[in-house]
Amino acid sequence: MIKMIASDMDGTLLSSHLAISETNKEAVLEAQAQGIEFMVATGRAYSEAKPALDDAGIKCCMITGNGAQIFDENGEAIVTFSIDKKTTKEIMTTLREKNLYFELMTTNGVYAESQPQRVENFATLLANQVPHLTFKMAIAMASTHLNMLPVHYINNYDDLLVDDSVEILKVIAFSDEGPKLLRPIADELEANGPLYVTASFPNNIEINHKDAQKGNAVKLMAEKRGIGLEDVMTIGDNFNDVSMLKVAGVSFAMGNAEEDVKKIAKYEADTNMNHGVGKAILRAISENL
């Protein structure tokens, strides 16, 4: 019997318009009404993830930064896995040598060095997700959405490395060349440091502390609640979801998921455009998966 559900956000719980549909919302609330704990497990920072949940009226625990932090339902951080500053400096040196644009997720929010580059990268994601969306329209949508999310623009990331009040949770790098360019860089970084490198979209790599994985975070939360992993359900669409799909007794890959991710999950849900999360939750409840 399902007692806990952990869902990814982008490409999963969220539609291509980056909102939680009414169908998904009602299914989540129904699960919570039946005593099933629902939480999101996202690559987003807390400040980037919370607005969509607030808009839908969903209050829950949150696994953020791919497992770098876990927050309780009141927004208090209860677990943090950060990258030490020396390792962060080495990551940044490698990415700069490769001429890659990257951003830093920290305990003080997300930092970026270039607003135009940030908008362009997000627009590329939208254009790839939404059929018939022109890049010009994607730029407009990206600008509107990103303006609603808190981000700190900084002249040089090096300033953060000497600020003891800030911990580095994740480094995310982008390239339009995709896995062909990014995968070798990911392998190089993992070989040289205590890191876990994954991806949430074809045009990025996400670099975390080796223990910052969604699967580890789901296991920790299940243990805290006294719930066996056989009674946990996870839902995701991309490679940063693989660790939690592997640990759960019931796992769903979205219909829009990467094909290699679908091979790992036990079940396949509908797409994020067709309320796949909501349908999967209701199926799990009705069929007692």
TrEMBL record:
GO-annotated molecular function: magnesium ion binding; phosphatase activity
Listed Pfam families: Hydrolase_3
Gene3D superfamilies: 3.30.1240.10, HAD superfamily/HAD-like
Record's signal peptide: none
Keyword flag Metal-binding: no
Keywords recorded for this protein, A-Z: Hydrolase
GO cellular component terms listed in the entry, alphabetical order: cytosol
CDD domains: HAD_Pase (cd07516)
Entry annotated with the keyword Magnesium: no
Annotated InterPro entries: Cof, HAD-like_sf, HAD-SF_hydro_IIB, HAD_sf
Classification via NCBIfam families: Cof-subfamily, HAD-SF-IIB
Protein name: HAD family hydrolase
